[in-house]
Request: fold
Amino acid sequence: MKRSSFITWDQLKVGALIAVALVIMGVAILKLGDAGNLFGKRYRLVAYVASASGLRVGGPVSVAGQLAGSIKEISFLPVDLDTTRNLKIVVEVNSTLREQVRKDSRAKIKTMGLLGDKVFDITVGTPKARSLHEGDTLFIAPSIDYEAVVQEASGAIREVVTLTRDLSKVTDGINRGEGTLGQLVTNRQLYDQLNLTLARTSSLMAKLENPRGTIGRLLDDPALYDNLNRTVASADTVISQINSGKGSVGKLLHDDTLYVHLVSIVARADSLMNTMAGGKGTIQKLFTDQQLYDQLVKTVTELNNVLIEVRRDPRRYTKEMIQVKLF
Reply:
């Protein structure tokens, strides 16, 4: 059977739909290219990092948080003692941003959101530094290691869980009436006693506030304060007079005449004691001569006996002393 050379209406509709789809696809590609600057001119920059965790070839490169290029290459460097330069990253940046990326710009690996993809972000430089050209090196700024943060957070979470368990044990003990808090929560008798104590305290405070009592007078009557104030003022006056050197107390504090006299007396007393200790004079004999001491004791004893006899029979000693003369 011979095929017809005419195009049917159904075929025309299918062709039109395909053409429209191709046009839409082309427009979308152009828009995406403009948005990501896929068809613009780019230049390459190099960075050296210790770790490129999360980065991949073709991943996004941003300048000040805005999409500006992509990662062209990630390669290992030869092993050496510098562990901060383990990987070489080659990035492509849009040439239109050449004035933004300068010598003092810093690059770091950031995370889009808290747990999003990794992005190679470059900060904007300042006018005092020159612009970077093809093949120049970007300096890497320290970035937050979210894995370390997550590990520390997990440790904190474990501590919180442990603390929660301890608090649960404490609350269980309180609910069972253990300890003072448990008794306060569960013991009605302790509550009644505390309530009674508070009532008595309130009654005592009411009595203390009575203006007729001593405490009430201390609270309301300023007489004691005035008396204390006058006493302090008088004491201050006395201290001022003493400090001024007036009166006996002031002279004792400021005048050294009495001190000089006392020193002189002490010196003389010391000289007298030295003289006595040297065996000179009657007093020293009394201290050192046993014979003189015995004679004095004997004399005092005999005199005491005579006095006793005189008191006993005074006429015996006075009859010849009294003479009566008659005229």
